[in-house]
Amino acid sequence: MTVSAFTPAFSTSRPFFLYVAFHDPHRCGHSQPQYGAFCEKFGSGEPGMGWIPDWKPQHYSPDQVQVWLPGALPSCGKLHPPQPSLLQDRYRKLHVLKRGKFSCTPDADIRSCCRCSVALFASVLFVSLILQLRLLVNSCISFLPSQVPYFVQDTPAARSDLAAQYTTIGRMDQGIGLVLEELHHAGFSNNTLVIYTSDNGIPFPSGRTNLYWSGTAEPLLISSPEHPARWGQVSDAFVSLLDLTPTVLDWFSVPYPSYSLFGKRRVQLTGKSLLPALSSEPPWATVFASQSLHEVTMHYPMRAVQCGSLRFIHNLQNLTPFPIDQDFYVSPTFQDLLNRTQGGQPTHWNKTLHSYYYRERWELYDHSTDPTESQNLASDPRYAQVLQELQGLLLKWQWATDDPWVCMPDGVLEDKPSPQCRPLHHEL
């Protein structure tokens, strides 16, 4: 089914919400290895690979992949690292891209205008960390050639793996262009809020399934005809996928839902609307992250908060080895790490497999001096006060969101007579 099959049904007098999800650029070497590690061969027209007629494959060689280092972060209120900032790191960008013009009457509220609409694009992998973004004349998102992220080993196997991923990013890119073209032909270019984002970091070491910066940094591009003042601008504000729901509801002027679960207190949306950020730069410098499992056998709960340049991670089950998901295990990148480690060869990686598997309970990184998160400062006396404040901030968020793991690993959550943590006395 194509987008063109849906657009004729869209009415100019009724709002619509269109969600388009792409498998690209996800790994598939574990399930369909004949198509390559990222299914980069599928639809290429090669023998046995099938043919996608509206895709023009873009191929990259491993030697095109270059080393990448991070850029800059906003400050976080009164919470500052104890040392002067030497180098800063960019966590997540809010891109406001110019696309179309305001089409309703100048005094109309675009959110209540009869032709307002929303289109949401989501891929299963983030790309802004490893690629630069540019806006083409035809409003198609395109990606410039390739870079090795600092958290991936710089070896031929990893470079080839990244190069294959870039091919599928190009396929997704062209697919997004086709969707935008269909919206344009249907007459919705100038009254549609377009959001492009993803759900997690890239499927490489320290990426997906991790709460390091490299595992939570995702792309976010927003194209709004209602906010021309910020067209083409980039924001350093911290945002979360939790912010998409209130953003879309506000766009349509729909009241937030009001309900309760299991007789408890009423549910409150923990996200914030991103629409104000499309008018002016917001002072958002704190964001939370959560991971409990990826596959059913990968239980490894973690919670994290990023406050300005400081990233704090609580590994709730750190006495067990960090689990590896199936598709990443069979990947050329991870097999390369295994083979090099077992053979006693240099891995050209910023970690060891042992340190990757076995982590400290508390991890604290100061991106202002350590943008690659290489030095855990949780036990550094100079950061003791910062650590305590971030622990309290994270715990407050867990209670506010009814996190079932709020008492782990030191206690058990008991709801009656009131929610409280009962100690286990297990001497961890």
How do the helices and strands line up, and which of them pair or pack?
Layout: E1 17-22, E2 66-67, E3 94-96, E4 117-123, E5 133-135, E6 141-143, E7 147-148, H1 156-185, E8 192-198, H2 213-216, E9 220-223, E10 233-235, H3 244-251, E11 286-291, E12 302-307, E13 310-315, H4 326-329, H5 332-342, H6 353-357, E14 362-366, H7 384-400, E15 411-414, E16 420-423
Parallel strand pairs: 1-4, 2-7, 3-9, 4-8
Antiparallel strand pairs: 3-10, 5-6, 8-9, 11-12, 12-13, 13-14, 15-16
Keywords for this entry:
four-stranded antiparallel sheet; 16 strands; 428 residues; six-stranded mixed sheet; alpha/beta; 7 helices; single chain
Compose a concise summary of this entry.
The protein has 428 residues and is α/β, with parallel strands linked by helices. It has helices spanning 156-185, 213-216, 244-251, 326-329, 332-342, 353-357, 384-400, and strands at 17-22, 66-67, 94-96, 117-123, 133-135, 141-143, 147-148, 192-198, 220-223, 233-235, 286-291, 302-307, 310-315, 362-366, 411-414, 420-423. The protein contains seven helices and 16 strands.
Strand content: 15-25%
Tertiary shape: globular
What letter string, H or E per element, gives the SSE order?
Answer: EEEEEEEHEHEEHEEEHHHEHEE
Quote the average pLDDT: 82
Helical stretch tally: 7
Instruction: Count the E strands.
Output: 16
Radius of gyration: 23 Å
- Please report the distance between the alpha carbons of the first and last residues: 54 Å
